[in-house]
User: What shape does this take?
Amino acid sequence: TIALSHRGQAVDDFSYDLRGTPCEEVAGKDFFHWPSGVQQRFPLYTALVDLGADSYMGIPLFTANRTPLGLIALLHSAPIDEPDVARTILHVLAARVTAELERTLAERALRESEAQLRQSQKLHAIGQLAGGVAHDFNNLLTVILGKASLLEQEPALPESARAAVRDIAQSGGRAAQLTRQLLAFSRRQAMQMRDADLNATVAALTGMLPRMLGEQVTIECVYESRPACVHADTNMIDQVLLNLAVNARDAMPSGGTLRIATSIVTLDAEAAKRTASARQGEFVCLTVADNGAGIEPEHLPRIFEPFFTTKDVGRGTGLGLATTYGIVQQHNGWIQVASEVGKGTSFEIYLPRCPRQPSADPLVPAPAPPAPAPKGRETVLLVEDESALRSLVREALTRHGYRVIDAASGPKAVEAWLACGKQVDLLLTDVVMPDGMTGFDVADRLREDVPRLPVIYASGYHEDFAQHDRTGASGASFLLKPYSLHQLAQAVRDSLDLDQVAGGL
Assistant: This one.
């Protein structure tokens, strides 16, 4: 209701229900007139007595495409003397009020869209920053984890020092996980996509949730009756669900109910307009709702920002929801949040529905223990601008028997290539480097001379590789930072062996 005028005074803060009132007769029609005795016609509507109404006129308000906007009602304490005049006046008012309502609603929708756009741009800028920070962290962590691995291999290392090295490696592993969360938020995390039934993915994870959330949290699951197929990285979807479930548990310290539901929804153009990121089409919706403390209205616009948290110090990094946001964005979906203080919070995650039905997962054998890192005697051209990382990789590969030629930039790599007479068996290069020459540029230049040269691109961004479509390039592979020295040695050996097999064919 926009406004109510009674005896010349505006009445504020009221709600209005059409049921059991004269207004119910107006809905869906063009005009309704009750000339007298309206109180007797609607005895359950006591407001008519309070208003002293005897006659009633009502006219509905529609947009140009017949979408209902509301109605105007006129009540009088006696029969209306000139109903045709009153009707004409109502029609004139209806046209003017409709125009004003449409303008008001359009302005409101524009403000909401602008606010959503500003929030999206803000999150994108923060994501760019987070991705840049994660890139530097990946280089540092590769050095830390690599040096710890080299130290642990020293036979003369005292046991006390060996334990300290293990602690360093364990802390480095946790830091690597933090970096992966930053990359997930900035939409630069590596993904392993496949068709999967979200019902099965959620059901598999909810089996372990009671142990994580505790007995005080009751879990209710409601699944879509049809296969809810999405093209997704199921490990990332698990992370999204875990993040939301843990947040819900923290919002219900005295216990409560966590509701997890899947559904298939179809959005038309009108429904898609309600959220800036939404679009038309068929989607699978994952709903995670709790009846906990809820989120304060002033905090709601910031909940997806990295490191923003309302939890006590030491109880959270503020990356859970930021990671969730990034993962959903990577899957071409979006999140809608509704929350009311004291009543709970509901997250709705929309993912594009996959038209194909997922096939059953094959049985996966238990992983075998890692074999000793393979060795070799070939020549590797190493291109890495981070000096500490370059030194570590050179030392690690040298220990495995390889001859290593290293360069700190693309132009210097080309100089080294020419200086050694192009006698290189493998190019191992970082992707993002200074001096205006990327790892891709270096590979392209060297392959002008040796088209079959094997290449390993190393980067913290899976996006770097995907954007340049190098996964299908002959003799090219990808090494994701931070990597272990065992992964490094295995990647080098695999690339060289694959080239030898291809050369034999």
About this structure: Residues 360-368 have pLDDT under 50 and may be disordered. The radius of gyration is 32 Å. Residues 137 and 276 are 33 Å apart (CA to CA). The longest helix spans residues 83-152.
